[in-house]
Design a protein that fits this description.
Pfam families: ABC_tran. By secondary structure, this protein is an alpha/beta fold. Helix content is 64%, strand content 9%. The protein contains 21 helices and ten strands. The chain is elongated. Bound molecules: adenosine-5'-triphosphate. The site of adenosine-5'-triphosphate (ATP) has 12 residues, from helix 13.
Length: 640
């Protein structure tokens, strides 16, 4: 079962185990974990902010800290106004006495308003930049990892979760500013309360703890649920994508796959809805418990204030100020808890992103290494073994020793799954051997600069990418760093024999090759194949790897393409050709025959035919198809 099949049909329970295992460390969301991990996660957010726009980051930070201090000063000034108003003397004296403090309150409010405006502007500038920088890093790192990492399920899951990290980094800026602000105003309120009476501060904390607990518990459940269900969500997107995708449209209509997919979509949505309902039920219960706890704590606080008043341990004016300070303080504490919690939740997603950055860096294609021999004579595989990750029963390549003389046509032949594509992927440096060496003359490819190896190679893979861009880009993407000159493009198109394909396009090379876009056009399989060859010609690598280049071509086009491939080799280019059309192999200088991952024969086509081995057998089978009279067809019962 492939990854997508497993996602589609494995059922939600299948996702649980693998996912939990992989992210076990991230699901430890205790209060202690919050306290210990938050600073590091915050630092990650700050780093991104500094990288995105250091000036805006500094402005936000300075504005928020100053705003917090201004709020604290404001609270103290309000306190002083109250003390004046409730103090002794005539009403006029008390009012006059309160004027300086009132002026301070007004000035502080004005300053806070200005600072808020500065912070809003800087935050607005910073947020999209942070998201962009985080996304760019994500994409850059993901594009630089080894092919084996991209094909690894565990790494893919990490890619899935980490994609939410960039928008979380953006929101972290917002929550971060709110947290800084709330924390400073809380410190002011707590300071005032402690001055008024030492017992008031613990009471304030007791009042706020329940909401802290409930917010944290709910967020923890949400995050854990997200991690368990993220693949389920991906599968849902996959199904809805399949239902609307043009490539699947014919089968959906002819085979009636639509209702089948819809049924799966509904079943998956229903399980996801059940999970949402479970979370909502738990959140409601947690909220009720927290509210009861807060109610009790509030009653206890006001009872304590009453008791202090009755016992004569506190003046009425002080109690009045205390009530204001408690209300302001608990509001700040509530905000702080809520925002810290939001910040923490976002920070966890940024943590996933950080984890991806680290893992992608570890699995990146190494940069640097020895230079390649300038003009090597041959590439030699020496006892090369390669196994795909997972539980493959046998290696895809098993102890292969062979030579690829450069400047020649070398054909790789063998039945399906014999390892031909894998071999050329190792040659191109897309995978590294598990055992053995690949030598360019006498330099081990493992020690060479992998990017330089890629420089020398042009590849028309079996499943080469049909980029949803114009025909021009589809050719020029063969070497994006090369100048896009008309001459070079025309030469590549001519080399691939694709002039006819381009001439038939409504806007020539400027035709968009994506039918699902307005003005888009679709090519036939064979026409695409010619463009793919033109792309490799535009790349102009010294070693051309062609994997089944003529699979979609008609007989005339096939002959023409092989003639062109031969011409390339005559011009000194090395051609490594994989094909099942053995008649086309007769022009190869050397043929290697693979069987179940092992090299079974090597030689010129004539030598191999004379030996009478696997090559000769496959050749005879193909030749026979043209000479054998057709067998009488058995009547098959008609399907209902
Ligand atoms: N990306 C992959 N991950 C895991 N296994 C793979 C992968 N690609 C190929 N294989 C396995 O490796 C073996 C060799 O495959 P490979 O594609 O190299 O064969 P091939 O000779 O090119 O076949 P074909 O003629 O069908 O193109 C097969 O058993 C295949 O299932």
């Amino acid at each position: 079962m492939s990854e997508s099949e497993r996602l589609l049909f494995g059922g939600p329970l299948r996702y649980d185990t693998g996912w939990n295992q992989h992210h076990g460390a991230f699901l430890e969301l205790s209060f202690r974990a919050l306290i210990t991990r938050l600073p590091a996660l915050l630092a990650a957010g700050l780093r991104l902010a500094r990288q995105a726009d250091p000036r805006a980051a500094r402005t936000v930070l300075a504005a928020e800290v100053t705003r917090g201090v201004a709020q604290a000063v404001g609270l103290l000034a309000v306190n002083s106004v109250l003390a004046r108003l409730m103090g002794g003397g005539s009403i006029e004296d008390r009012l006059r006495g309160a004027v300086p403090a009132l002026v301070t309150v007004a000035a502080v409010m004005l300053l806070a308003t200005l600072l808020r405006a500065a912070s809003t502007y800087a935050t607005g500038r910073l947020e999209p930049k942070v998201e962009r920088v985080a996304t760019e890093l994500y994409l850059e790192r993901a594009a630089a990892v080894e092919l084996a990492a991209i094909e690894d399920h565990a790494f893919h899951k990490l890619l899935d979760t980490a994609q939410y990290g960039a928008s979380s980094a953006r929101r972290m800026i917002m929550y971060g500013t709110r947290v800084a602000n709330a924390a400073i105003s809380l410190i002011a309120a707590a300071g005032v309360l402690t001055v008024l009476h030492p017992v008031l501060l613990p009471l304030l904390v007791t009042m706020t703890l329940p909401s802290a607990w409930s917010a944290l518990t709910i967020a923890r459940r949400r995050y854990a649920s997200f991690h368990i269900w993220v693949q389920h969500a991906r599968a849902g997107h996959l199904i809805s994508g399949l239902l609307t995708e043009p490539a699947a449209a014919p089968e959906i209509r002819v085979h009636g796959v639509g209702p089948f997919l819809l049924r799966h979509f509904r079943a998956m949505s229903e399980t996801a809805e059940a999970e949402q309902a479970r979370l909502a039920r738990l959140a409601a219960r947690t909220g009720l418990v927290a509210a009861a706890w807060t109610g009790l704590a509030t009653a206890a606080t006001y009872a304590t204030l009453g008791a202090l008043l009755l016992a004569g341990a506190m003046a009425l004016s002080v109690a009045g100020t205390a009530v204001i300070a408690i209300r302001t303080g608990s509001a700040s504490l509530d905000t702080l808890v809520l925002e810290v919690n939001q910040l923490h939740e976002e920070a966890l997603f940024v943590g996933d992103l950080e984890k991806l950055y680290a893992e992608a860096a570890e699995r990146a294609i190494p940069v640097g290494g020895r230079p390649l021999p300038e003009d090597p004579r041959e590439i030699r595989f020496e006892n090369v073994t390669f196994r795909y990750p997972g539980d493959a029963a046998r290696p895809a390549l098993d102890d292969i020793t062979l030579t690829l003389p450069l400047g020649r046509i070398v054909a790789l032949v063998g039945e399906n799954g014999s390892g031909k594509t894998t071999l050329v992927k190792l040659l191109a440096g897309l995978y590294v051997p598990e055992k053995g060496r690949i030598l360019w003359d006498d330099v081990d490819a493992a020690t060479m600069d992998r990017h330089r190896i890629a420089e020398r190679i042009a590849m028309v893979a079996q499943d080469f990418k049909r980029w949803p861009f114009t025909a021009r880009v589809n050719v020029a993407v063969g070497r994006p760093s090369a100048p896009l000159s008309e001459e070079r493009l025309a030469a590549a198109v001519a080399e691939a024999g694709a002039e006819g394909v381009v001439a038939d396009l409504p806007r020539g090379l400027d035709t968009l090759l994506a039918r699902d876009f307005s003005g888009g056009h679709e090519l036939s399989g064979g026409q695409w194949q010619r463009l793919g060859i033109a792309r490799a010609a535009f790349r102009n690598g010294r070693i051309l790897i062609v994997d089944e280049p003529t699979a979609a071509l008609d007989a005339r086009a096939e002959l023409e393409v092989f003639d062109r491939i031969r011409a390339l080799a005559d011009g000194g280019q090395t051609v490594v050709l994989i094909t099942h059309r053995l008649a086309s192999v007769r022009h190869a200088d050397l043929v290697h025959v693979l069987d179940q991952g092992r090299l079974v024969e090597s030689g010129t086509p004539d030598e191999l035919l004379a030996t009478g081995g696997l090559y000769a057998e496959l050749y005879a089978l193909q030749a026979e198809q043209f000479t054998r009279p057709p067998a009488p067809a058995a009547r098959a019962p008609e399907a209902g």
